[in-house]
Structures are given as structure tokens and as C-alpha cells.
Amino acid sequence: MTTSLPSLRSLDRRDFLRGGLAAAALAATGGLAGCATSGTGSTAPSASATGATSADNPFGLAANSSTEAVIFKGGYGIDYATFAGQQMQAKNAGSTVKVSPATNIAQTLQPRFVAGNPPDVIDNSGAGLIGINTIRDQLADLTDVINANNYEGTKIADTLYPGVTAPGTFDGKFVQLNYVLTVYALWYSASLFESEGWTVPKTYDEMYELGGKAKAKGKYLLGWGKEAATYYQTMAIASAIKQGGDEVRLALENLKPDCWSMPAVQAVFTGLKKIIDAGYVKPGGAGTQFTAAQAQWSNDQDFVLYPSGGWIENEMKTQTKDGFKMTGAPEPTVDSSSSLPWEALHSTAGEGYIVPAQAKNLAGGKEFLRAMLSKEAATNFAKTTFSSSIVKGLIPEDGFGSTALQSQVKMLDAAGSNVFTWNFVDLYGTNTDQLVLWNAFLQGDSDVATLTKGLQSITDKIAKDDSIKKVPVS
Question: GO terms for CC (predicted)?
């Protein structure tokens, strides 16, 4: 079965504004990953004890039961999940919820999947996530979660943006709930740019020119940390899709031969290499922990641009210079002849929550998601992380005072129908191998040809491996 990107032209631009970020972006995400072929493995039923089901207890959570949640500790932290766990405990007297952080989900939890004792609910996110293709036959269907009422008494499905289930639905089975709407951008300090009279670059040539201006002020243009080197891959792919159009996205998604050699991709790599060779990238990133590198941007202002998702403000909230005015701008195109305008935006639903079918407390895992989807928990998430969940109608016009969140709304408004995403990196779990290539490239130890060859080798290995289930995209 193939999947298709829905026509974004038909989506109302007002859907992107106030009261949450982008229903339309969620719908677009679903077009990329909504119809994977199902595996042949069977799913063993959970042996967990259950109680009587009711409107207040839709999954039959047993009295005095314990639920284990493992949450990726990244840009959003885990406090929002702890808040939901506390809500769940208050709603179900006698129950307990243990929320544990993890920074490498695959390394931490794959052994537990193999042993048959996974946690009850997992935030499968971050650079070290478990490739969803490798475990989706072991996951519980979450349709009953969104069909249940939230803690305020409203059917959850009616509170969510359209398309929310599509990204986590594989061959008709909804197994992953993507909780956060992420906007990817090139982030900068609006106050710094205003004081220097700089404008945000729209092309790689303009980025290069800004690099010279930054150098004259004793600053670098770009910087990175070792665990986040592939943030530049994300930027490069977005730029290439904007430059070359949908054929670039489709070639990468479908693991085509020579997809990394497409002219638009090569033009982006070449533009970035020119910036690296000019000495406009702060050296040492391959040996620097990524949040330390990000602090060199947000607190020390050693470099002036940084590609990341909308989680960046929350991730760096204790390490951001006063008056920084963190602001996002669309990722650059190669030139003004791009297939999509500069305003086109990479946006997608992320933070994929899963409930293993073999969880000891399957009902507890689903009840935890029900708590997270309550109005109170979703509002808390938006207010404390300056990001939007998939629950609509919760973000005020002032973005809770966040310039970063305000800029996300503005970017989505300006993008209109030109919103896109891709899924192959997470789907096939290639990020770890790609990190090695990007660290070498950014520190100047390889060239465009070497980077291209390495990325194509990773792609070809997956494409030729018949044991890996593929997700055709059209």
C-alpha cells in the first residue's frame, strides 16, 4: 500500500492560528506514515489484571494498580508527564504512577521488549528511539484511547486536531500517539539581529554573507553538539525539498538509489560546505555535549543561528541570555528559483507515545495517555514547554509570553498550505549511523562526496534488506 501527501492547498490557513498550532500540519504528517504494511508477527495479549469498565474507567484500570511510564528526557523534559501522572493518581484513588526519564530509549528499553517485560507506556523519542518498524507488531491498538472521554467529560477525539491518528496508524491499526506538534526552524536572537541590523538569511548564499558579518563581530554563524549533528541533516533535507520539490521528498522516503545525489540535495550540501570551509562554523562540536553547544548559542551568543525544533526554548530556558528574544525563521532555500517558497515549513507531530501489548498494566498505560490528553494536562504542557500538543484550542495569542511560540504561529500562518514533513529517518532508525557522518562533515573532516556516499550507503543497506518492512510513499 502506498501513502500520499494530502493536498495542503485545500486546508484553511486559519487552522494554523491561535488556540493551538496546526491541524493541517498533522494531517500532512499522516499522509507520510499512515499506511505501512503490517508485519506477520502476532501480538500476545497482556496478562495484567483489570477492573470493571465504566465511563470513568474506560480501560478497566484495576484498583490500587501501579503504572510505569518511561519518558524521553529531551527538549520537553519530563515534568509535563509527571503532571499527567499526578492527575491520573488523583483521578484513580489508590493507584500509583512511576514516571522515569530515559535519554536513549532503544538502548534502555529494547532489552525489556526482548525479555517480554516492557514498561506500560513509553515516549519513544529522541536520537536513540526504537525504530517503530521493529516493534509495531508488539504494540497495543490505541483507538479506544481517543474514543474515550477525557477527564473533563468530552470525547477525546473531538478535542484533537484532524489527522492526529494518521502518523501512528499502520495498516489500519493505530499504535502510536504523537503528542506534540513540532515546528522546525532556523532559530536566532531577534534582539541581537535588531541591534546589529542583520536580516534573517533566506538562501545559503545569504547565510554565507551573514557568516562574514558575524565573524567581523567576533562570532560564528553556526555551531553544533555531537548528539545533535543531524539537526543539520534535518535542515538540509527541508531546504532540498523546498528547492527541488516533492520529488526530493519521495526519493528519500522511498530509499531510492542515488537519492542523496539529486541536484537539490547536492546544492544544499555544497552551500553548507562553503560555510564550513570559510570557518563560519564554531569548531569542536563533535566533542561537545549538545546542550552545552546550544548554550554557546543561547547564552554566550558565540554563534548566531541554530537549526532545531520548537522544543529549543524549553530545553534551554535556564541557559538563555536575558532579553534574547528567541525567534524562529523558515529554513533556507538554495536560491529564489526554489519549487516551494522560502516561507514553506517543515512541521510534524512528534513525541510518539506507545503502549506495549505485553505491558503488565495495559489499562494503566492507556489511562496515562487519557490523563495527558485532558485539557488541564495539555494546557500545562503548552504553558510550561512553550509548545503545542495535539489538543486544540489551548494557546493564547500572546503565546504565554513566549517569543518562540509566537514566531511558530507566525511561521505557520505565513506558510499557509506549504507545510511538509517526512518520516524515513525515524521509521527505519537511521539517525545513529547518520550522526557519525554529520559530525565529520561539520567539523571539516569530510567533503560533500564523502557525506553523500555515506548517507547513500545507509539508505541502500535498508533498501536491499528484505527483512526490513518498507513503507512505500507516493
Answer: cell envelope
Interatomic CA distance for residues 39 and 54, integer angstroms: 33
How many angstroms separate the CA atoms of 25 and 394, rounded? 17
d(CA 249, CA 247): 5
Dist CA 159 CA 392 (whole Å): 6
DSSP label at residue 160: B
Model pLDDT, residue 49: 64
pTM for this one?
A: 0.77
DSSP sequence for 453-468? HHHHHHHHHHHH-TTS
Domains of the chain: 35-182+349-405 (3.40.190.10), 183-346+422-464 (3.40.190.10)
Task: Give the integer Cα–Cα distance in Å for 227 and 291.
Answer: 9
- State pLDDT tens for residues 291-336: 999 999 999 999 999 999 999 998 999 999 999 999 999 999 999 9
Q: Does 181 or 146 have the greater pLDDT score?
A: 146
